[in-house]
Structures are given as structure tokens and as C-alpha cells.
């Protein structure tokens, strides 16, 4: 059974990226103690050996602390880049003509290789190409069989292998590259809990990944393309979780549209009961500073007020100078917001009506009964985590204790708002009396509530059958 390892127990979870600054046992353990619930492995960087070593450490920390810790493997996805220049870089001047082609001859001030014929195939006059995270922009004037003539709109220095974004067209490329296929096979064999799919454009991208993953991990789509926003509901219907990847999304969408996209994604994910993560630049200044800016603290607070399941640290914890401090301050910001009466009333106002099937009716009723009785906890017996996911969708005012017989389900629940997962591999729940006794024991060990408080228990009968949630019970703490 877990013990209280957080200084502050928050409903909104923290995802921390591991990297060069956070690969040793002491640091990873400190991050978990500071409030990290899920660790992200970024497969854009590092070797399989690096990731395997971190995986072993996370599982060692998990066993020591006695709490499930989720692992998210983030696939790199298709990376579009320009070729090389004879002098390593050039300066593009606004109003100048510039050509992209398939020739591998090093570029100069007039042209460069664009080794992606799929871009040339779909570009049209008026299409924009953004480079170096949107710092430079050109507009296509003419399209040839193997070249694009463009006009520089926003100039600057362009150097070797800088990234290219094409926001105006859907590119005929798969979301999983050959590298991703290798990384995916390795991550699944290693035993990660979530696979993040990068640069999703269409529902078909999700279906392809789902066919490869099966039930071995939960699938998370990263929303960072305007085309994905056009297919948002169809994509979210097919995934298990979603990430608001504001880095590339902020390059391809006008900056003023990113907050609206974030709000729309969170709202729809909440309605569908899919965990949602807000990511990128949340505490960016803490890469080199021990404290965040006030604007960054407000950014985290906004995501918490919107009801996101989790907020994510990227370079702050992977490569920054203050990974521990970044997790601690994020935990403190979340805690401060969640103690605020306005946040609590906001969660109540945002509460969703249960959908018309038994398990969701039970989830909605559990929230209502818990609020009426001022219960300190809802205990959810769940085989795969689904019951806890549905109760979390209701955003109850108390904690959700998810009891499961499998480590896999416990780790997947680590990402979900308000859920504190408990893994009971050996426990046999045969009847309602066993269910109540076990639930009260979990509440006691979690040190939640006081003698005389009521708790609400949701379960499925017959026990041990996935997807059978049909029972609600109230018990009193002795």
C-alpha cells in the first residue's frame, strides 16, 4: 500500500520529462517525492539504453515509495528539416526570392535542399513555410515538379537542418516513421504505460497506432497540427488520452488562437472522459532560474482552473539546472489553486451530466452522494482503471482511491485527475462485505478522513469482471 510521499496531495497531476539532468536514482526519487506522478521519456533524444536505464530506476523508485508511477513514451514523429548550407547558414532578407528543391548540393542565399518531396507535392501558391520554430516565414509563389519558388515574408538567419512547419496543408505522411516503429516496439517491450503519438493529423493516424499498440499501453495523441484541430472530436474518440502540445501548435497556429485551442481541447476531452495534459513552456524560465516568472505561475493556474488532468514539464526537468525545484513549485502552484474556493466552485459549475449507461450513472451518483455526505473519499474498485476514469470525469470534491489488482492499471491511473491508485495483487474480494472491509482498510492506510466519516464505494458485481461497474455503497469509517 502507498504511504503519503507527497508533501502536498493534489488532484491535478504532474508529468516530468526525464533527461540528462534527471537520469540518476536520487534525482528521479526526489522528483517523485516532490510531486511527479508520471515520467515522460522523450524518444526524440537519447538511446534505447538510456531509456532502459531510466525505466529501471523509475520502477525501483516506485517499489520503494509504494505508489504507482506512470511512464509515458513520447514518439518523435516525422521531423521536417531543411538541408545544409555551404557556409553553415545564410541570412534571408524580407522580400527576397528563395528556392527550395530536392538537390543535395549545399545551399546559399538563393536556395537550399528541402528533402521532403511530400511538401512539394501538396504545396500551392500562397502556402506558408515556417522555419526554426516559426522565426522565419516564406510564402510559396510557384510550384514545380521538384522545387518551390518562395518569397521571404519574415527574414532572419537560417542554418543547417532547421525545422520546417507547413501549417496550411495536410501532409501525406504517416504519424509514425521508421524510427518511431523501432522506438515503439522497444517501449512496449520495456513496459511503458502510455505511448504519445506526435504530429497527428487525421483519425487514421490514431487507428494505425492503435493497431500496433493493442492493449499493451494506453495511447495519447499530441495535438500540434491545425489539421488535427479540424478533426478533433473524431481523433479524441479513438484515443485514450490527449496532450495539448503547445510548442508546435503555437508555431502553426497564430499565438492568439493557442489559448482558445487549449480550452477547446480540454473541454472536449473532459466531455469524453479522456485524460488531458497541458504541455510546453509551463515553467520555461526555470531551465536556468530557481524560480518561475509570475506569468508562468499564472499559466499553470489557468490550466488547473480549466480542469486539465495534468500539467507537464519538458526541458525544465529534463535538461534544466533546477529539476527538483521545478516540480516542487509546480506542485505548490497546483495546491494553492486547488485550495481556493473559486476553483472548487468552478469545478462544480463545470461538472458534466452522466451519460446514459450504467457505469456512468454510478460514477455520477458517487460524486453526488460524496458531496452530500461530505465524504473524504470515493473508493473505486476497477480492473483496468475505467471506473476511476469515469468518476474523475465528474470532478468530485473529494479524492478518488482507485483499487486495482494490476500494476498496469495503477500506473495508468497515475495520470488521471484526483485519482490515488492502490494496487492489491493478492487481495480477494468475493462479496460486498469483503469490498467494504477492504475499502476501509485502504482509507485507513491512506490516512484520509476521521472516525464517523462516510466513504462512497463504487464497484462491479460480479467482482473481477472488467467493465461491470453497477454497485454503489456507503460505509462509515469506524
TrEMBL record:
Obligatory cofactor(s): K(+)
Pathway: Carbohydrate degradation; glycolysis; pyruvate from D-glyceraldehyde 3-phosphate: step 5/5
EC annotation from Swiss-Prot or TrEMBL: 2.7.1.40
Coiled-coil zones: none
Residue ranges annotated for the Pyruvate kinase barrel domain, each copy included: 11-327
Catalytic activity: pyruvate + ATP = phosphoenolpyruvate + ADP + H(+)
PROSITE patterns noted in UniProt: PYRUVATE_KINASE
GO molecular-function term, one example from the UniProt record: kinase activity
InterPro entries: Pyr_Knase, Pyrv/PenolPyrv_kinase-like_dom, Pyrv_kinase-like_dom_sf, Pyrv_Knase-like_insert_dom_sf, Pyrv_Knase_AS, Pyrv_Knase_brl, Pyrv_Knase_C, Pyrv_Knase_C_sf
Keywords from the named record: ATP-binding, Glycolysis, Kinase, Magnesium, Metal-binding, Nucleotide-binding, Pyruvate, Transferase
Keyword Protease: no
Matching Pfam families: PK, PK_C
Gene3D superfamilies tied to this protein: Phosphoenolpyruvate-binding domains (3.20.20.60), PK beta-barrel domain-like (2.40.33.10), Pyruvate kinase, C-terminal domain (3.40.1380.20)
All copies of domain Pyruvate kinase C-terminal, residue ranges: 360-474
Family: Belongs to the pyruvate kinase family.
Annotated protein name in UniProt: Pyruvate kinase
Gene label: pyk
